[in-house]
Amino acid sequence: MSHRPWEESADFSIGLSPIDEARWLEGCEADPAARKDPLHAEHADLVWGEMQPSRPGQREAAALLGVSSFGDLPPLYAAARTVADDLVLVEKTDGLWRVSAISLSAPTFFTAREVLGKSLAEIHGPVTGFNDRFLARLVRIFDGLRPGLILQRRNWSVVNSDQPFTPFSAPVRARIGEIAPGDVGQALFTRVERQTVRRLPDTGGVLFTIRVWLTPFQALTESPERLAAFARAWRSAAPGFAAYKGFHLYAELVEAFLRAHGESHSVNGA
Ligand code: HEM
Prior knowledge:
seven-stranded antiparallel beta sheet; 13 helices; 7 strands; binds protoporphyrin IX containing FE; globular; alpha+beta
């Protein structure tokens, strides 16, 4: 499984493609509840939220994941405890697709309370150019998603944290200055989100899943081709994309790392 989406794109994109049901969620975490439960207990409004009428959709989402008894827990959270992924229920009310329930234990600089009840347009407002370039297409995809079809996409960024739970950017970015150029291989990470969408046929909503993969920069040096592909993406990233992701904050460190590993700078990446 490739978690190197920069090899495909260094700009914002929808990038959704169909996958088989057998490849829906990627697994590989022994006990997701051990990570999620303490966050749920300590930071409930950052990692969890539900609108009252969302329970039928939550139950249908949980059933898709094979979870049918919930104890005292909201069904979507009961289901989220069994998988590594975060789970977002998106339902159409008053003509707009909105987040109606969310379990968000690995946020990349956002919180459950910020997005609960918000429409796709409101959520993506901060993303440079999103509503002009992508919103209409995204709404068409949510409207037309056939039951049984599962779509996936990946996005990527660079962060100086190995923690999946990063609701706020400021405390992470405040520590960039502490990183010595020689330590970049261990101190910077590619942060990849693998996301999927699929229809809930009975209640009509969409289940959106988010799985975060964090990999230290050192892994980029596993082959010259891999490093070259990253260097190309980093140096050719679309300006709006790079600015939105704060790449300028990491520019000196990343360049130092690339040069130290033989990727000298050239404008065309050759
Ligand atoms: C398949 C449907 C979706 C697509 C194609 C999509 C696409 C995107 C894109 C292109 C970005 C810019 C960042 C990047 O690409 O790295 C973004 C950011 C984001 N998306 Fe989505 N998105 C989708 C659904 C959702 C849903 C359902 C949520 C609800 C939680 C969501 C929450 C966000 C947030 C919070 C951001 C960051 C916004 C900010 O900076 O404040 N997205 N999305």
